[in-house]
Amino acid sequence: MGYFENYMNVSHNLSGTLQEFDLGNGKHGKFYSLPALETAGVGPVSKLPVSIRLVLESVLRNCDGKKVHEANVKELANWKPAETRTAEIPFVVARIVLQDFTGVPLLVDLAAMRSAVAKLGKNPKIIEPLVPVDLVVDHSVQVDFAGAADSMAKNLDLEFTRNRERYQFLKWGMQAFDTFKVVPPGIGIVHQVNLEYLAKGVLYSQDPKSQTPDAIYYPDTLVGTDSHTTMINGIGIVGWGVGGIEAEAGMLGQPVYFLTPDVVGVHLTGALTEGVTATDLALTVTQMLRKTKVVGKFVEFFGPGTAALPVVDRATIANMAPEYGATMGFFPIDEECVNYLRATGRSEEHCRLYENYYKAQGLWGIPQKGQIEYSQVVELDLTSVRPSVAGPKRPQDRIELGNLRREFFNAIQRPVTENGFGKSRQVFGKSVKVETAAKKKANIGTGSVVIAAITSCTNTSNPSVMLAAGLLAKKAVEKGLKVNPAVKASLAPGSRVVTDYLKKTGLTPFLNKLRFNTVGYGCTTCIGNSGPLDPAIEDAIVKNDYVTASVLSGNRNFEARVHQNVKSNFLMSPPLVVAFALAGRVDIDMSCEPLGKDKDGAPVYLADLWPTLQEVRDAMQSALKPEVFRKLYKNFAAQNPKWNEIPSSVGNVYEWDTKSTYIQEPPFFTSFSMTPGSIKPISGARALGIFGDSVTTDHISPAGAIKKSSPAGKFLIENGVTAEDFNSYGSRRGNDRVMTRGTFANVRIKNLMLGGEEGGNTIGPDGAKTSIYDASIAYQAKGTPLIVIAGQEYGTGSSRDWAAKGTNLLGVKAVVAQSFERIHRSNLVGMGVLPLQFKDGTTAQTLKLDGTETYDIVGLDANIKPQQDLTLKITRKDGKVENVPVRCRIDTPIEIDYYQHGGILPFVLRQLISKA
Ligand code: SF4
């Protein structure tokens, strides 16, 4: 048998498209041919963007007349670069990837569905993923220990102690579900593991109901419960991040529905110059495409510059699609892709099959100008890319390296509302001396680097930048430079392959010497698991309100993401992370200021340390060896004794432990019945919060530390958990009691009902200030529905289903915003919460809303249509009434069904039970 079996496919021969191709081993295989679809006159398929053609293949193959119709095939085969987008595409994906923060709650939901089915006296096995599901445990490891040889072992020990209950639960899932596999902790980061190991490029199925035993070959496609799933677009695989709720529906046989997208073509020409990295290119693309406005669109790279980029550089750019706002940052399939598959240990037979399949589909090679008509084309000459960083708060705010000092000064003095820090220029030059726990003296002030992390699959999957970091470290050590004692340095590779090539190239000792010891294989600082700072340093920051900095090779840098008390965060390439750790500050112009002094007291500049392209290329020769990949991606359990020691419960239905503070049966199905509710107006609602622009999913449902004084912290203490064992919100997503209390509990969220005060507070029904959770409980006790009001880009940031689940469980019936981030909007609908959008020019400020109003949503009934206008009726404290038109952001007909059923999960559950 082959790589995966997928029994969802049905054999048909629509328009004579079921054809054969040469497998490259003397045999022939079957496939649904896109060229045949064009020959049959269905549409001008060969002119479509490659990404659209790959989705079209899925629509064609899965055309069963029930979930996917012939009309869907025709519609997509006739995709036009520019037209009003109203058609939704039913996309059946080949597989699903999960990380543990989102995967555990997803497994909790599946377990809860099984419990609900069992309670109804039906066979719980009707709840079973229909496509392969791979979960990689990568989000849990924290950098509690850093800068020493034993840091990784100690972090791994702590990880297993903290997460034992969750890991036990995952092990139950592995035995309860046939198609659910787990890559245990300590192996790597989900997207890098996907790129290096899970992705096959071409899959094949054997339909047991088919008359013919022949396998059908089809493109590897996926959705993942993590926004950066798009890294896989770097190797020509269609895939993106969805909320856990949509992934569950996808697992249970529902297509992932999305509006037909525009496709923006990015025409790359030229080549990167000396001193410029793939990270600089990714930051440049992010800034450029943010300006182009690509939200909800596919981005497809083409042209000679694209063809010349290696897959690892493509993957770095693709990874940042959520940062530029696109659904995907897609790179078509070519020679480079098959070379990468070969170099990473995929078999020769499979590589031949891969190449033959895409050639048969007419999908081989990077398109050149004029071959495809895109909705819009933007140009980028790679020779124009300069060394860059991005920050201090947003990934799209790119700064050329030489301008950082000036830009940092500006950011410090800019008002908070303009992404600044609102400080006076007097803060510069002030610092305090502290003594660290290691008895080292350090100066701390505004601009000091306190965290330097080589982290994130964005970059750790790319040997060129990882080797550049090692080469820079080598030169720095040889010149006698040291990392500033205030800096917490760490290296967290996304797979053990990185460790192997850093070791083989002899670079590990130099990184270690600069305290970039490996701290674990996982997301670490990229997801906010940067761990504690030295107490003396943290104390100095908090007492003096210093705006210190983190420097990291990650992709997200909004406030409180990296560390609660580190306010400015700069994204950059791994070699620059090392350089800033040496300098110890971000208020530096590295083009003319030295990073330090060598053994003889002579100044050392960045240019003295920067490795040449040739040096990196030479080191790369040792980087990608197929046998290393094969060895390291084999028999995980045997390589991980700690994982083997974790006991697993057995059985098809999970036995919930009501005392667990990690895993609880969520209340989503407690009053489940086979009859859905009805869509009705919302009346007499009150505002639970009024927020400004760019409220992230991390503001709504933080992933990081739980404060003792927060509702979640108090709950854990009441349940016998000490503060040291709180772990993070992300790790507690299997427990709705903690997560509901944690919703809107981010220390940086600003509620305009309290004049923009930071923290998760609001005004309760009695008019007094209270926590958002306590206010919600008080309102729910009175039977008062709640709404949330917000500005632009509501729900931006990581795909996080708890941001929608928590909103639902707080009793919020609608969110009214100026605009929504794509995944969060669909997650809200998926949880039965109504997203409404203000018309252009209307905001909470123009309406002078302060939270004392009462709100009705008028026009909401069973006849509602996607994107229909509704009325938000505002009744002021003094009784004055104002009717404001808003657009209902239920975008597609299937979403109306989801909303009516109270969300996707009850919808799917009713379908499955009625078929059983
Ligand atoms: S390393 Fe960062 S980008 Fe990659 S999966 Fe982890 S959190 Fe997401």
Which key terms come to mind for this protein?
916 residues, alpha/beta, 7-stranded mixed barrel, 5-stranded parallel beta sheet, binds iron/sulfur cluster
Write a brief caption for the model.
Helices cover 33% and strands 17% of the residues. The protein is of the alpha/beta class and 916 residues long.
Q: Overall pLDDT, averaged?
A: 93
By secondary-structure content and strand pairing, the structural class works out as: alpha/beta
What is the topology, as strand order, of the major beta sheet?
Answer: 26-31-32-33-36-35-34
Ligand catalogue? iron/sulfur cluster
Structure write-up:
- It contains 33 helices and 36 strands.
- A seven-stranded mixed β-barrel has the order 26-31-32-33-36-35-34.
- It starts with 17 loop residues before the first strand and ends with a helix.
- Iron/sulfur cluster binds next to helix 7 and helix 16.
